[in-house]
């Protein structure tokens, strides 16, 4: 996968409009007028419609762009055996902040688009978690899809609650503050674990109506 920091920038008018729309939607919500997005991109409103057909078409392009960037950023972090990739990602707040804020805005808005967004993130998580397992940086799971969905929903739920109690902020402030509060406890929990024994897991597996197949690391 190509990390967005190493990919050459797309400077076409279509890409400029899409990128401007991501920032504008993230900041002002999806009621933001096309004329404002056109002004941000330095083009006419007619050119926006020429490239995307409608606001829905523009949102489709923004959704797909954010999906791709999130996937391409997550994959290398989970495959890499050194912390360098993760540190580079944490340092790239300015690059990721609009995507982060757009994701939050989409989830807050709800509806079919938000549901599709979550499903897409889960499907991508299954793939990059599998890459991490294959690379030896992640442990296998008894149910890879269930783990991916749990991680996505837990992360998104934490983001939405954190934003709700933190108050208004710019996309950069939002992401920087979230990372400051969450990076250490999340990495500590994922790396060192929480429980000191297997008692709770073994008890669940013993009484589960359809116990999942053990992960290969437990055999």
TrEMBL record:
Q: Does the keyword DNA-binding apply?
A: yes
- Keywords associated with the record: DNA-binding
* A Pfam family reported for this protein in Swiss-Prot or TrEMBL: TetR_C_25
Q: What is this protein called?
A: TetR family transcriptional regulator
Q: Does this entry carry the keyword Cell division?
A: no
Q: Where is the HTH tetR-type domain?
A: 11-70
**DNA-binding region extent:** 33-52
Gene3D superfamilies (UniProt xref)? Tetracycline Repressor, domain 2
Q: Which InterPro entries match?
A: Homeodomain-like_sf (IPR009057), HTH-type_TetR-like_transc_reg (IPR050109), HTH_TetR (IPR001647), Tet_transcr_reg_TetR-rel_C_sf (IPR036271), TetR_C_25 (IPR041484)
Q: What molecular function does GO assign, one term? A: transcription cis-regulatory region binding
Q: Which PANTHER family match?
A: HTH-TYPE TRANSCRIPTIONAL DUAL REGULATOR CECR (PTHR30055:SF146), HTH-TYPE TRANSCRIPTIONAL REGULATOR RUTR (PTHR30055)
